[in-house]
Task: inverse folding
């Protein structure tokens, strides 16, 4: 009985890998073995990037000193527009607030929640008459303001730099629909 030899073990490389086939290593690295699959994958990644960086995340630049020292002037931050899909804004969140146009926003911190009363006295924020603990607020300040009652869809927002005069600082009641998202830290 003659012995059979297995020639498949003599050449372990696939037919295209030894350079004699239609795929070179360079084309496999750049395009992959199947150009259709690579094209589909590229389109999916492009669509995901467009959705994430045009719809979900918005890039904002801080112009002004009202959020010092947390957000220095000319610093850039990403705002997550989907942050409040499953829950509302929370106290202490730094949020982007839409003003007039698509490119005009403020970054402010939420200190008052719907249904609460917010006041300023002797350098403290008072929520329903009790002093709010603000570990991020390290400077002393002297704002005074009578209590403001918030309705069920309003938040009280203020910047972290309260050493500037109160009349020069944008702060106050903000309706929920103007809050577009929370900054990523």
Result:
């Amino acid at each position: 009985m003659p012995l059979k030899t297995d020639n498949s073990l003599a050449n372990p490389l696939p037919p295209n890998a030894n350079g004699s086939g239609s795929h070179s290593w360079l084309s496999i690295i750049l395009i992959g073995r199947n150009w259709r699959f690579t094209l589909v994958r590229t389109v999916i990644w492009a669509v995901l990037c467009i959705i994430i960086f045009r719809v979900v995340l918005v890039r904002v630049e801080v112009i002004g000193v009202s959020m010092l020292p947390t957000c220095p002037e000319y610093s850039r931050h990403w705002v997550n527009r989907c942050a409040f899909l499953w829950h509302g804004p929370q106290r202490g969140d730094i949020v982007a607030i839409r003003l007039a146009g698509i490119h005009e926003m403020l970054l402010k911190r939420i200190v008052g929640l719907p249904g609460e009363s917010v006041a300023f006295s002797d350098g403290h924020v008072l929520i329903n008459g009790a002093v709010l603990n603000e570990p991020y607020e390290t400077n002393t300040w002297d704002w005074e303001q009578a209590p403001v009652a918030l309705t069920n869809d309003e938040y009280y927002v203020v910047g972290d730099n309260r050493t500037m005069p109160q009349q020069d600082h944008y702060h106050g009641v903000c309706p929920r629909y103007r809050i577009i998202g929370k900054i990523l830290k």
